[in-house]
Records
---
Amino acid sequence: MAARNGITLYHSPASRAFTAYWMLEELGVPFGVKTIDIKKGEQKAAAYLKLNPAGKVPTLTDGEVVVSENPAIAIYLADRYGYGTLAPKIEEAARGPYLKWMVFSTAVVDPVASLHEQKIDLPGYNFSFGAFDDMVQVLSGVLKDREFLLGDRFTAADVVLGGTLSRLLYQKILPEEPVLMDYNDRLTQREAFHRAADATWPSQFYGALA
Ligand SMILES: N[C@@H](CCC(=O)N[C@@H](CS)C(=O)NCC(=O)O)C(=O)O
């Protein structure tokens, strides 16, 4: 059932919708949850396709606003409910890398890692997401001397990249490089991460955190 302020998250347990759930927990805004069971194919039901024609979770509605794709959901929520804190302001220099890491998370990290998991490693120069090893190097490079993507400041970009990275480390798709593991530890220690994980993942998934 939708919360009074109108935010509803359509999610499926143990899915990429975890990222949007974590984002809402970081903001501390009230929200309702509707479960779309992707194992039962509910994401392809006509009513849901009207909200998200891609037939995937997550989708978020906030009053009249309908938004899907994790980075878009996080950018929307952070601008609306965490502007200047979880979202750097438009005029801040940090806004550039903030947006870059948002997009990089699902335009590069997620697809190239999915292919790598299938043992498909394409030549980077031919594909927009580049090569798997290059992606790992980019992440290790940016995180080697800082706490979060933008330095000592935690932002919604860490939620989007971190939600992806955390899953990929758990699935052993990303190499266990200390710099990535340390970053993941910093993120998974957050209370909002725990609340979202407890609500959306089977307990064994993040069992080590319990
Ligand atoms: N690019 C989307 C990916 C979302 C996605 O892949 N969702 C999966 C669950 S992990 C899904 O809904 N799969 C169901 C299907 O493809 O039918 C995002 O970042 O939000």
---
Amino acid sequence: MAKLLVGQLSDIDIKGSRTIRLDHIEIAVFRLSDDSVLAVENRCPHKGGQLSEGMVCGSAVHCPLHDWKVDLRSGRVHEPDDGCVTTFPTEIDQSGSIYITI
Ligand code: FES
């Protein structure tokens, strides 16, 4: 496992996101309205839409392509649709630096 610095909390708008690209995967890091930060694979399980381009609502993101709703905590798609994405542990230190664990 590796812990990666994503950036500063202030770098991401509330209900916004930023992406980081690793060798084989792109990860979307979302800042929720309560200033928590959650990270998921940036690929909708339906047809590969970029979740980072979606609208954040509570702790879910609405895929921009066909509006599937993905829970950012569990990675599960809301019913009646079905599927899941990989989630990644996140933490924010006292200086506001965001880290994810891969
Ligand atoms: S690609 Fe995300 S809902 Fe279709």
